[in-house]
Amino acid sequence: MKTYSRTITEAPERLVENGNYNLGCFNTPVKQANLLDFPSPYKLPLPRSIKALQLREWQAFQLMGKDHFVMVAIYNAKKISLVQFIVYDIKNNHKIKYEKKVASWDLTVPDTLYNSVASYTSKNFSLEAKHDIATNKLELTAWIKGFQNLPDVNAHFTGLHDVTTYTPIVVCNPFSSGRVMYSHKCLMPMSGDLSIGDKYLKFEESNSQLIIDDHKGYYPYPTVYDWVTGMGRDKENRMVGFNLTDNQVIEQEKYNENCLWFGGELHPLPPIKVKRPGGVKGKWQISDEYDMVNLEFNPVIHTSVNINLLVLKSQYEGPYGFFNGYLKKTTGEKVLIENMFGMGEDFYLRA
């Protein structure tokens, strides 16, 4: 069996310097994800305002407690923008979804994780993520009241965003010579409180974890990708998680965001493929050409979005479920994945 390696370096301070992208895969944060400073993502130089309309950007968070999974998103694709707060009761297979389509100018998604805030606020729906990597700070709050006859929400979560202890995967990967995607993903311990209606949930740092995805990109038209992620604890209570994507990035042997997190360590993984012989509601098979990724995903609950408005078309499947199989560290050591909870996405967007 052939072996795989990918160069991982410390990140530059800025993604665009002297009119050029700093492409690569990194294990430290970028101080400024300044993609708007690239002069010509679409061949000809464009005004900053036009580039901003084409730049998709979001912050998303997956939070896992002992028995509950929470998904939070502040998503600004300019033509489609939304905020999302989802609570899933794993034991009882019950999901409550709060989602609101919003104007892009009502969202704030900063270009740094140093002393910044991502947010959306209205009279009945508020999400806020405060960051400062310099002090290991990540605070996530949600307040939702009187929304679509759903139970009111009041939540506050704190993540230990200590990148010296919990190594992130940070990428600036190319779709073409002019267009790239940036992502900062990190698995970390978290704690928090969630009130939903008359139910109160406590998230303890000893058994709870969070994955952040700070993300920007000049994505292809149309955009197509497969993505799976999962997280949990092993028998020694060490955090284990993974991020696996098959997207339209070129030179994926060199540029991808696939990784295993184990006890705070980062282990890069090869390009992957997702097969669904039984369709999106059947079992998914995730594998690579190096025998470092061998997973089966069994969906248990589904989210589907289908929009067809001529110039805009979206087909989205985002199930939650359980992973089994194995991943391998860069040392070759096998890490068993046994009934680990996570989610997948089968994504198509023409916008």
Element layout with pairings:
Blueprint: E1 16-17, E2 20-21, E3 24-26, H1 48-54, E4 56-64, E5 68-76, E6 81-89, E7 94-101, E8 107-108, E9 116-121, E10 125-132, E11 137-144, E12 153-160, E13 169-174, E14 180-196, E15 199-203, E16 209-217, E17 223-233, E18 239-246, E19 259-262, E20 265-268, E21 273-275, E22 284-287, E23 293-301, E24 304-309, E25 312-317, E26 320-328, E27 334-350
Antiparallel strand pairs: 1-2, 3-13, 4-5, 4-16, 5-6, 6-7, 8-9, 9-10, 10-11, 11-12, 12-14, 13-14, 14-15, 14-16, 17-18, 17-27, 18-19, 19-20, 21-22, 22-23, 23-26, 24-25, 25-27, 26-27
Q: Tally the helices: what do you get?
A: 1
Q: How many strands appear in the DSSP assignment?
A: 27
Task: Tell me the domain tally.
Answer: 2
Work out the radius of gyration.
19 Å
Low-confidence stretches: none
Strand content: over 45%
- The outline comes out as globular
Could you say what the CATH architecture of the largest domain is?
Beta Barrel
* CATH class value of the largest domain: Mainly Beta
CATH topology of the largest domain: AttH-like fold
What class, by secondary structure content?
A: mainly beta
Helix/strand order, N-terminal first: EEEHEEEEEEEEEEEEEEEEEEEEEEEE
Q: Helical percent range?
A: under 10%
Distance between the termini: 41 Å
The profile of the biggest β sheet is: 14 strands, antiparallel
